[in-house]
Write a structure and sequence with these properties.
Shape: globular
Largest sheet: 7 strands, mixed
Number of strands: 11
Strand content: over 45%
Helix content: under 10%
Number of helices: 0
Radius of gyration: 14 Å
Structural class: mainly beta
Distance between the termini: 40 Å
Order of helices and strands: EEEEEEEEEEE
Length: 120
């Protein structure tokens, strides 16, 4: 049984910062990529960023230069540092882990989501 426990969401003013954390536990031996998605009300769930076991990263264009994803392998934890937040960043943020193979990612497990609200 794999569990992903997220923390760090909340309410912040535009221009502020938040740091999300996600700790994975259980049998995750076939996992080599960790990431974050977000879903705003009435919209689809979109990729925010992911990081591979080799520390290669990928970001959505909308967050490049503002968000930084990192991981701490010893703790099976992934972080998302979010700076210069905008109201359009308001969404539920989901942590996910999976397998990157052949240039494609299969996301196998998801967290419960954490709300991020940015006020203008």
């Amino acid at each position: 049984q794999v569990q992903l426990v997220e923390s760090g969401g909340g309410l912040v003013q535009a221009g502020g910062s938040l740091r999300l954390s996600c700790a994975a536990s259980g049998s995750i031996v076939s996992i080599n990529v960790m990431g974050w998605y977000r879903q705003a009300p009435g919209k689809q769930r979109d990729l925010v960023a992911f990081i591979t076991s080799g520390d290669n990263t990928n970001y959505a264009d909308s967050v490049k230069g503002r968000f930084t994803i990192s991981r701490e392998n010893a703790k099976n934890t992934v972080y998302l540092q979010m700076n210069t937040l905008k109201p359009e960043d308001t969404a539920v943020y989901y942590c996910t882990i999976g397998l990157l193979m052949g240039g494609a990612v299969r996301w196998d497990y998801w967290g419960q989501g954490t709300q991020v609200t940015v006020s203008s």
